Amino acid sequence: MLSEQSATVVRATLPAVGASLGEISERFYAGMFAARPELLRDLFNRGNQASGTQRQALAGSIAAFATHLLDHPDQRPDAMLGRIAHKHASLGITPDQYAIVHRHLFAAIADVLGEAVTPEVAAAWDEVYWLMANALTAIEKRLYEERGGHQWRTWEVVERITETADVVTFRLRPADGGPVRAFRAGQYVSVRVTLADGARQIRQYSLSGAPGPDARQFSVKRVHADPAPEGEVSHHLHARVRAGDVLELSEAHGDLVLDTDAGTPLLLASAGIGVTPITAMLAHLAESGHRAPVTVVHGDRSPADHALRADHEAFPAKLPDATVRFWYEQDAPEGAHTGYVDLAQVPVAPATHAYLCGPLPFMRAVREQLIDKGVAPAHIHYEVFGPDLWLAS
Predict the structure, then answer these.
(1) pTM score of the predicted model
(2) Does residue 333 sit in helix, strand or coil?
(3) Catalytic residue from among 140, 163, 248, 251
(4) Known catalytic membership, residue 98
(5) What are the helix (H) ranges across the chain?
(6) Are the C-beta atoms of residues 356 and 363 closer than 8 Å to each other?
(7) Using 50, 70 and 90 to split pLDDT, how confident is the model at 214?
(8) Is 230 marked active-site?
């Protein structure tokens, strides 16, 4: 994919560029938002910008893509690109926005690295950028075509359910009464709200119910300022949105979807609000009559903090071969475990496919335990809420 001349230059400069990517991404965002403030107001997540997680994710994705081009020149990292493309498509990213990013990103590279950015170096990294941008554009084009393009559709909240002190579930139907496009269990929607300062901020929320013919359901955890910035959109939804109100939703996107047949053993692992896509998967498995073993594991602070707990128990009970194991840091009831999720005593069937969602340390720990039990790395799938910092580590 990368030309031989550029590969030589990128290989030689990757250590220096990689070491500076944090500073480069910080200056990139500062420069772009100074020139285009509407992007921060109405597109980019202001909380992720304030915490620095978006900068880390950008740096990690560029470094990972460049490294892959060098180590596997005949392969495209479709798993990484697909995850990014789904997020972009849910936001409505357009091809012309890649040119905006390119202009400000390369200005930041020149600013940080100075004279080290020779014409040859600039040309090589320019090729890396456009290989990644064009690949993403192609995947996003296909996603838009599959979903009839990107559009914000108005949905009416028909029910609001308090799950825990900090989690509420919203059930919605399209305000126009029109047909609803199907989605796959595990996917998410973008939700756009207008905040008090006029900003139109967008967040992604996993659909927490089974794919239905005319409805959507998502659950929102209120994000407190500890240590990250307080969640603007989550607090807005908790404080202001009730039954009868309307919200703008995108079509469903996301690549953490069940992609196996009814004879494949599954392990569905979650922690905290990561339960949301897992609950949708369990609802789908129960409705579709999945026959193979399904192992459900979940970790939380306490039973009172365990959102969608009733569904988390009820759907596996409808399956012919399901095992449910919950871990709580405190107040564990009879039949549950105290502490953190530990798969040491959990049987894992051969050829199991695993789906993980929760905080990054939790998913890393579960992934290591599954690999130790013989699960193929290619059969372990994950979803990160927010910027994908797995690539930045």
Answers:
(1) 0.93
(2) coil
(3) 140
(4) yes
(5) 4-35, 37-42, 46-51, 53-71, 78-91, 95-113, 119-146, 232-240, 275-288, 309-317, 360-372
(6) yes
(7) confident
(8) no
